[in-house]
Backbone:
């Protein structure tokens, strides 16, 4: 289903009229909140253009990446009064990013996903939930590679490790009498635990602003959305006794760690 406010015909026509469709175009897809129907009245939109050859047309910016070539040209245009950012990724760059989350990389030199940047993680997460403009076959092939990769295990483990480390910090801070720092560490632990739950259910995005949406979509009994929302909005928090709330969060993080099998 195409989310309200998106016209694939308008996107195709705008790219064609402005000569932003490269001759070597393999696929175009909408990513991010717009593709999920989570966008709001002021949301920007993300459009990924995949090419076989480097984009040689006009661009008004670039994004650094850790693959070769090491930049992705960008363009900002307006379609139906909404701001769209186009990113021109080479097919070979996408393959390099997928290699970064291969099982070989996971089992050998990068089990923590340190070699893949946030921009590249966003690409893969948005590919999984993308709205196809053109190039259905290309996108299905890359989605298949992503599904067979170590992405889910890698980032679930990383989120679990972060949740565990922050929960340990929160406990230590309580024991040292630093209650303010303990609360902040517990908030970080809870966010990481929520990410681990969402990732374990196939929600591949990692953007913090959509954490609640992802957890709702995951609908996991490991961390029900209602429990997460009660804790993250600190409904039961008593400033006179912050340790009670901190320990509740630490308990939830332990339950998540025990329940998720990676």
Residues:
């Amino acid at each position: 289903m195409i989310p309200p406010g998106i016209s694939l015909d308008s996107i195709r026509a705008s790219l064609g009229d402005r000569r932003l469709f490269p001759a070597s175009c393999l696929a175009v897809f909408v990513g991010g909140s717009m593709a999920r129907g989570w966008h709001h009245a002021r949301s920007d939109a993300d459009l990924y253009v995949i090419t076989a050859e480097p984009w040689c047309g006009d661009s008004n910016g670039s994004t650094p990446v850790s693959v070769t070539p090491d930049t992705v040209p960008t363009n900002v245009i307006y379609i139906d009064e909404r701001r769209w950012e186009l990113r021109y990724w080479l097919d070979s760059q996408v393959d390099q990013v997928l290699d970064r989350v291969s099982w070989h990389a996971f089992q050998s030199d990068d089990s923590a996903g340190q070699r893949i940047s946030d921009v590249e993680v966003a690409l893969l997460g948005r590919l999984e939930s993308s709205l196809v403009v053109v190039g259905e076959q290309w996108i299905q092939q890359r989605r298949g590679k992503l599904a067979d990769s170590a992405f889910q295990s890698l980032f679930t483990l990383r989120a679990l490790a972060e949740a565990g480390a922050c929960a340990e910090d929160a406990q230590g801070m309580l024991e040292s009498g630093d209650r303010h720092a303990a609360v902040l560490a517990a908030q970080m632990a809870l966010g990481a635990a929520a990410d681990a739950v969402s990732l374990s259910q196939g929600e591949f995005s990692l953007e913090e602003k959509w954490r609640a949406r992802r957890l709702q979509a995951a609908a996991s009994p490991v961390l029900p959305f209602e429990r997460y929302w009660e804790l993250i909005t600190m409904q039961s928090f008593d400033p006179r006794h912050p340790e009670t709330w901190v320990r509740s969060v630490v308990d939830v993080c332990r339950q998540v760690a025990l329940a998720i099998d990676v």
